[in-house]
Amino acid sequence: MGSAEQISQLAVDGLMVGALYAVIALGYTLVYGVLQLINFAHSEVFMLGAFGGLFACRALVPGDGATPAGLAAAGLVLVGLVAGAAAGGAAAYTLERCAYRPLRRRGAPRLAYLISAIGASLFAFNLAGKEFGRQSVPVPDLFANRTVVTVLGAEISTQSLVIAATALLMLLAVDHLVADTRLGLSIRAVAQDAECAGLMGVDVQRVIVVTFVLGGLLAGAGGFLYAMTFNASYTMGFVPGIKAFTAAVLGGIGNVRGAVLGGLLLGLVESFGGYLFDASYKNVIAFTVLVGVLLVRPSGLLGTRLGRPA
Amino acid sequence: MSGRLRSLRTAGLLAALAAVMTGPTGDADHPLAGIRGSLAFPRVLFFAAAALVLWAALLGRDRLRAQARTLRGTALGRLAGPAGAGAGNGNGNGNGAGAATRPGATWLSGRRGAVLGHAALLAVALAVPPVLPTAAQQALVSEIGIYALLALGLNVVVGYAGLLDLGYIAFFAIGAYTTAYLTSADAMPWHAPWQLNPFFVLPIALLVAAVAGVVLGGPTLRLRGDYLAIVTLGFGEIVQLLANNADGVTGGPRGVFGLPPLSVELPGVRYSWGLDPLPYYYLLIALIVLVMVVFGRWERSRTGRAWTAIRQDEVAAEATGVATMRMKLLAFAVGASVSGFAGVVVATKQFFNPQSFGLQASLLVLTIVIFGGMGSRLGVVLGALVLQGTAFLLRDTVPPADRFIYFGAVVVLMMIFRPEGLLPPRAHRPRGSGPSRDRSVESVESVDSDGAAGTSRGVADQASPGVVS
C-alpha cells in the first residue's frame, strides 16, 4: 500500500472525476425519472457541450500565448461554461425534438426509443467528427494551473478546484430545483405518474422538454470541464457517458442524490482500483463493483425514483 | 395554415441537414467552414429545390391522409363500430399492408404460404451471391451473415423473453476464444493439449457460451428492466477488457490469427474452407436456416409461450405458474449459444481481436434486432441484410469516415416511421390452419397484437393456466 499522501491524492483525483460523472449522471437520471428511458445519446450532448465551450474560449483567448489571470481568467471559465451549457442544452432539445418526440407521438415500443437514441448518437458524433475534425483538441489555457493547497499530502490544483466548485454548485442547484421549486414539483409529478400529472394540469410535454434541456445544460457544462483536463474530441462522449450511466444506476436511477453519490463513488472506486491493480483494469473494477452492488441492492444504493419508492 | 408552415419548416430543416451531411468537412480551427461550405451558393439552390419538393410531398401526403380518414370514417359509420375503430387505430401506419393482403391471398395464406415464401427467399439467397463481386461476398459473410446469426440469438433474449441484454457480444467473444484455444497450437499463449477440428468445436463453443449465459444470468436475472441492461453492459465490457488486458491468457490487443480453417475429413469427403468467402456464406446460410427452423418450433412450443408471457407481464406470468427464472435463464443460454456458434465461424474465418467485441458491436446487433422486427426470425435476418447492406453500399458511395452519419440517420428515420421494425412478427398464427400439436394451444391463442416489450397493456391472458412449465 502507498503512503498516506498517496491515498489522499488518489481520493482527491477520484472525487474530481467522480464529480464530473455525477454532473453527467444527473442528465441520465432526470430523463429516466420522467420518461423511464435510457437516453443513450446523452454522451453526445456532453461532447457537443465540450466543443461549444472550447470554441467560445478559443475565440476569446488572446492569441499572444499569455495565460490570462485574475478576473479575465474567471470570466473566460465562465464564458466556457455558459457556452458549453448552451450548446449542451440546444443539443438536448434538438435530440428530444427529432429522435424522441416523433416516436412518443406514435406510441412506439420502449425499445424503439433506445434504438433511436443509438442512431442519433451515431449520427451526432460522426457529424461532429466531420465538422470539427477528428483529432483531439485541447482547451486553451484559461488560467495558470498550479498547486493551490495541500490537504493531507494531496496536491490540489487550480483546475481541480474549478472543476470541484463548479460541479458542486451545479449539483446543489439541481437538487434545490428538483426538491423545492414548482418546476421540480412538476418534474417529480410526471416521474411519478405522467398521466395523472397531466390530469392535474401539469404540461407533461413541457416538463419533458425542460428535463431534457436541464440534463443538456449540465452535461454541456460538464463536457467543458472534462475537456479542460482531457481535451475534446468527437468520440470523447462515449466512455464518460457509460461511466455516468453506470453511476446513475449505481446510485439508483431516477434518483437525483443517488446519481451524485454514485458518481463520486465510481470516481473513487476507479481511482483506487486503478492504483491497486493496474490502470488498464480500472474499468473492469468499476463494472465489477456495479454488478456487486446491484446484486445486493437490486435498485441501486439509494434506490428510489424521483419522488417514488422503487 | 400553420400545419403547412410546419411542413415547410420540416422540409427545410431536413434539406439543410442533408446539405451539411453531404457537404465539405471542417476542422477544429474552422468549425463552421463545413457548414458554410455546405450552404454555399450553387449547392444551396439544389437543396432548396429539394426542400420544396419534399414540402409538396408532405402536403400531398397530409391531404391523402385526411381523405382516407374521412372515407374510413364514413365506412366505419356504416359498419358500426368498436371493432372497426380498433382496426383503424392499428392500421395508422404500415400495418395496413399486411391486413389488406390477407383476404385476397387465400391459397397463399397459412402455413403453406409461409413455407413457400421462405423457400423462395432461400432460393434467392442461394442463387444470387455467386454472381456478386468478391467484396460483396465478403460483406455477405462477415458483416451480414454473422450478424444475422447473432441477431437471431439476441432475438430470443430481447424479442421472445423481453430481456434487454447490452453485453450480448461477450458470448460471441467467448465462442471465438474457445475456438482459438481448442483448434490451434500456436495462435494463443496458452492452448488445449489437443487440437480439434473446428467442426467439433461448434458444439463445445455452443455449450461454453450457454454455460457463460447461465453463469451471468443466474445472479443477474433477478434484476428488472434497465438494471439488467446495465449489468449485461458491464459484463460485456468486462469480457472485452479482460480479453484486451490479460495478455498472458488471450494474447491481448494484437488479437488472434492463423487459426486452421474449417475442414471436413470424412472417408470419401475431404473439403477445407479456404480464403474464398462463398463456402463460408453457404455454411452460414445452413446455420441460419437451422437456427430459424429450431427457433420456429421453439417459438410455438410451451417454452415460447412462457417467454411471451414473461415479456408481456412477468408478475402475471409468475402468478399463472410460469417458472420465470428458469425460462429467463433458458432464453439467456439459448441466445448465448447461438452467439457462440457465430464465434466459431468468425474465428475460423478471419482475424479477430478484442476490439471486435466492444459495446458498439452489442448495440449494432440490438439495432439489427429492433430494426428488423423484434420477435420475428425472418425480420431480424432481413434487418441484418438491410442495415449491414446499407453500411456496405455506403462504403463505396460516401467518404468512409462519414459512413455512420448516414447509418445513424437511417436508424432514427426507421424508428420514427416504422418503430415496430421492418417485418414485425405476425400478430398470431392464423387460427385453424392445420392441426396444432400442442395440447394447451386453444387456450393460449388469444390476442397478442403488439409483440413488443413494455407496450403491452393488460394482455396477461396470454399466460393461461395451461402454460405451467
What does this structure look like?
The complex is a heterodimer of chains A (310) and B (469). Helices cover 73% and strands 4% of the residues of chain A. Chain A has 310 residues and is mostly helical. Chain A is built from eleven helices and four strands. Chain A has one domain (16-236). In chain A, the strands form two sheets. In chain A, strands 1-2 form a two-stranded antiparallel sheet. Chain A starts with a helix and ends with a strand. Chain B has 469 residues and is an all-alpha fold. Chain B has two domains: 2-85; 117-444, ABC transporter involved in vitamin B12 uptake, BtuC (Orthogonal Bundle). Chain B is built from 19 helices and two strands. Chain B has a two-stranded antiparallel sheet with strand order 1-2. In chain B, a hairpin with a 2-residue loop joins strand 1 and strand 2. In chain B, helix 9 runs antiparallel to helix 15 (324-349). Chain B is globular and about 75 Å long. Chain B starts with a helix and ends in a 25-residue tail after the last helix. Classes of the chains: A mainly alpha (310), B mainly alpha (469). At the A-B interface, helix 3, helix 4, helix 9 and helix 11 of A face helix 10, helix 16 and helix 18 of B.
